[in-house]
Amino acid sequence: AVTRTFSIIKPDATRRNLTGAVTKLLEEAGLRVVASKRIHMTRDQAGGFYAVHKERPFYNDLCTFMTSGPVVVQVLEGEDAVKRNRDVMGATNPADAAEGTIRKLYAESIEANSVHGSDSDENAAIEIAFFFQPNEIVG
Ligand code: CMP
């Protein structure tokens, strides 16, 4: 089925002017950008977005990193979008990411790993609603 997922192009990637390169890989993987905006997250936004990781040892550094520069938040649409996006992103840790994936090509570290993607349809809906109003998504 055609579904939607939520993506973030992270500060390490925007800093290196990789927004287009990352988006090209997403598009070539069969995903369509149906909403996109460049924002500088506040600490509250980062903390809220990653609240599920609140008890993890990397939480504070992650929030600092995600507010260290601009990000591009996107809604992606395509056949089985969550899985399609996770496949093209590659493993969280670039050391484990497969050849040709975004993280293998571009990620600097497990933290500065260039992209975020939702891990389930349920979380995709929550994450999309965190950053986008319905009328900002144009399918
Ligand atoms: P993301 O998919 O955005 O979800 C949580 C983020 O935490 C992850 O990508 C990484 O950027 C970051 N992170 C930092 N350290 C770790 C770790 N040890 N395990 C998982 N994620 C980590």
Order of helices and strands: EHHEHHEHHEH
Number of helices: 7
The best one-word shape is globular
The overall strand count is: 4
Structure classification: alpha+beta
- Distinct ligand kinds: adenosine-3',5'-cyclic-monophosphate
Low-confidence stretches: none
Mean of pLDDT: 98
Q: Give the strand order of the largest sheet, numbering strands 1, 2, ... along the chain.
A: 2-3-1-4
Largest sheet data: 4 strands, antiparallel
What portion of the residues fall into strands of 2 or more residues? 15-25%
End-to-end CA span = 15 Å
Evaluate the radius of gyration: 14 Å
Helix content: 25-40%
List the helices and strands and how they pair.
Blueprint (H helix, E strand, L loop, with lengths): L1 E8 L1 H5 L3 H10 L3 E8 L3 H7 L9 H8 L4 E9 L1 H9 L12 H5 L8 E3 L3 H11 L8
Antiparallel strand pairs: 1-3, 1-4, 2-3
The structure holds adenosine-3',5'-cyclic-monophosphate.
Q: In brief, what are we looking at here?
A:
The protein has 139 residues and is of the alpha+beta class.
Overall description:
40% of the residues lie in helices and 20% in strands. The protein contains 7 helices and 4 strands. A 4-stranded antiparallel β-sheet has the order 2-3-1-4, sandwiched between helices. The radius of gyration is 14 Å and the shape is globular. Bound molecules: adenosine-3',5'-cyclic-monophosphate (CMP). The site of adenosine-3',5'-cyclic-monophosphate has 8 residues, from loops.
